[in-house]
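Consider the following assembly input.
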Amino acid sequence: METVDLQKTPLREFNQKLHDLQGSSDKAEFKVLNPRGKHAVASGIDAPVSVEIDGSVGYYCASMNKQADVVVNGSAGVGLAENIMSGKVHVKGDASSSAAATGIGGMVIIDGNASSRCGISNRGVDIVVKGNVGHMSGFMAQAGNLVVLGDAGDAFGDSIYEAKLFVRGSVKSLGADCIEKEMRDEHKETLRKILDEAGIGEEVDVNEFKRYGSARQLYNFKIDNLEAY
Amino acid sequence: MSGEGRWVHSPPRPSATFDEYAIAEIQRAAATGIYDIRGAGAKRKVPHFDDLLFLGASMTRYPLEGYREKCSTEVTLGTRYAKNPIHLKIPITIAGMSFGSLSGPAKEALGRGANAVGTSTTTGDGGMTPEERGHSKTLVYQVLPSRYGMNPDDLRKADALEVVVGQGAKPGGGGMLLGQKISDRVAEMRTLPKGIDQRSACRHPDWTGCDDLEIKIGELRELTDWKVPIYVKVGASRPYFDTALAVKAGADVVVLDGMQGGTAATQEVFIEHIGLPILSAIRPAVQALQDLDMHREVQLIVSGGIRTGADVAKALALGADAVSIGCAALIALGDNSPHLAEEYAKLGTRPGCYDDWHEGRDPAGITTQDPELYKRFDPVEGGRRLANYLSVLTLEAQTIARANGKNHVNHLEPEDLVALTVEAAAMAQVPLAGTNWIPGKTGDQF
């Protein structure tokens, strides 16, 4: 394992080193010290590497991640793992707004709470938040899954498309076109797989969750829906 | 009719306020209960480049010889931070237009035409297609609020990135692609069900405000290893502050789009009533760059209603580094062509007026995803026509530059211009023709 101290090594140099591994099958391991809220730490990796960051990071940590396994032993700023393609990003603390925004694949795990707009415009990433999520989470989410073990804030799933939202706790309010949906066996199976992948399949009961998704009433403009617009 | 009969009724008098269009729109609204949606940009008459004239050379200015003395046109964009700035042979770029709003062959033609004359094309709300990348030597990749199709692989294939904050046709509005244009391929690229109306977000999902944008641009630079220029595109709205804030956020290039700039589909009321004409936006943007000592270091691209080489030259004279064309490029490809008159008539319109680009029924095969329609369009021929048109724009701008004694089109300057109207004089901050009066300015202007 290589240790990188961001108090000594410029972030640009570290990110370039990660980018230079693109296309290689090198399963290199990095330990990052002193991130001290820097932005775009470990962004844009496209290699099966492991990065463990000791401390809290700023905006866009592990953004557009492909293949890599990134762990943050701290909290993360806005846009954690935005546009993640594959791999896994695990934050042991809390995450700020827009965690996993526009993610296409892979998994994002947040042990604490996630702020507003968690999983906004989700296009396929699986997100597991062990605490609560803030308002407008799941906004315009197109695909993928958002699993919340705690509570969800206001306007949950507003303007949602085909993403699936699972909440174990309460939902303060649902956004436009988002409704509670039947939790059928296939959904429980989907949820179970996600929880297993997140390493908590044994300790969490899928039967405690409710499922939310699109009523599909706003998919095409209808004058009858005027009050919803 | 006796001579007295004519005094019984006054002749039919149309209202200037309730004109033919206003009445028809009230009737349409009453019949349907929904606002009108269309493509293209503002159609109302606004102060424009037509209201400016070049002075040419005279006793105090020496012209350059036409066809003999060189007048350069190349421009470099992205010199502030990018390792690999964009070098264009002409200062006229192709604006962002999505695959989805345009057919695949139309996007290909834009690339072919731009390549032929050495300029760039731009993706749009829907991502980058392999055909587009393959046919565009220099391709700008838009980072839009929707992030449809956004991925790091395409990001790294781009020659420049353009963070779209807004566009001239709808500052403050998101994208719209109606269900009839969502083919299987478009739906797959955007990760959405086929046939639904796609209302792209109007706000970016992962940043809000200028301070965030600075961090976002920093991230994009990290993702691309600081190689490519990063543009910030704004609709003409508050051009002084928007330009200053884009510079503060770290933009290499500011793209400023006036209300005449086109859209694939937007509410008519939005297009016609929100945003500024490009004529009024250029000087404030240039002033912001000058106040920050960034004019020519951060390049300014302006767009919205560029039609001729004169428009190009005037935009450059007001301080822009380059211009961008969208609607004009589509017209060059064959949009609104007279030979389609019969088919336009079936759609209830005529050549020169067709703007229902959102319906996907374009008989020219350009703004459609219908294979029967887009196979009519020949991308090689379309590319050739666009290249011809871009060449003419360039020749015209060179002609004007030489006449004003400039050996580079970017040497044109405001003092080469006068205005024909008080409004244009105030907006462009050049004297009213025959006077030394610039409205809003005091003191000796000579």
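The two ends of chain A are 53 Å apart (CA to CA). Ask yourself how this observation constrains the way the partners meet.
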